[in-house]
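Why do we bother with a discrete structure alphabet at all? Because it lets us treat a fold like text: something you can write down, compare, and reason about line by line. To make this less abstract, here is a complete entry for 6-N-hydroxylaminopurine resistance protein. Read it the way you would read a sentence in a foreign language you are learning: slowly, and without expecting to understand everything at once.
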Amino acid sequence: MKFPVQVFTGRIQKYAGTRPSAIAKRSVEGELILTTLGLEGDQQAEKKIHGGPERALCHYPREHYAWWAQAFPEQAERFVAPAFGENLSTLGMDEKSVFIGDIYRWGDALIQVTQPRSPCFKINFHFGITDISSLMQESGRTGWLYRVLNDGPVNSDTPLELASRLSDVSVFDAAAIAWHQPFDDEQTRRLLSAAGLSASWAKTMQKRRDARKIESFHRRLWGNKPAVKSSGV
């Protein structure tokens, strides 16, 4: 099955009260250059936690935006692609139908799913919603990231097509194991063994097995601020 794709890139911007980010992206059309670090012209502000070979592209299902608009009706007009800073947007692909290690053909390029996107506190500042990063994580509406296996020119008019499926761990399952369940060594090992899993997630899962517990998400989701719930979902 083929999935038409919208493509977006962004440049680093300053945000009051927090660190710079390139989450605000714009639509691009026609032929683009895809490298092992992502789309030419797309920037990342903090490369230790964003971008890099294991997180070269971010994909977010367009279907999710109706849920977000209903959750925050006062900002409903903002919930359209690429509001969450995604590079790729589609209909018909979601966290339950996409699996860790999946290889998609995009023209002559090949991209591989590596992990769910890990929401961070910068999304809170982007929307002005105190806990939207936490809601992304809790709802499982995170999207996912890719590495680039075969680079070169790509085109916004060329659909994505599943080429290979290598694991039985969906992106939804990976998020559930990572964030929604108490520590379970068997499930952690299942995720750790998923072909194509990013090196950073493999490292985190192994640390959990060693420690027999799950690390705190607070700093990633809230930065240096206390957890405060909004009036949304």
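What the structure line is telling us, in plain words: Residues 2-222 form a domain with the M1 Pyruvate Kinase; Domain 3 fold (CATH 2.40.33.20). The chain is about 25% helix and 25% strand.
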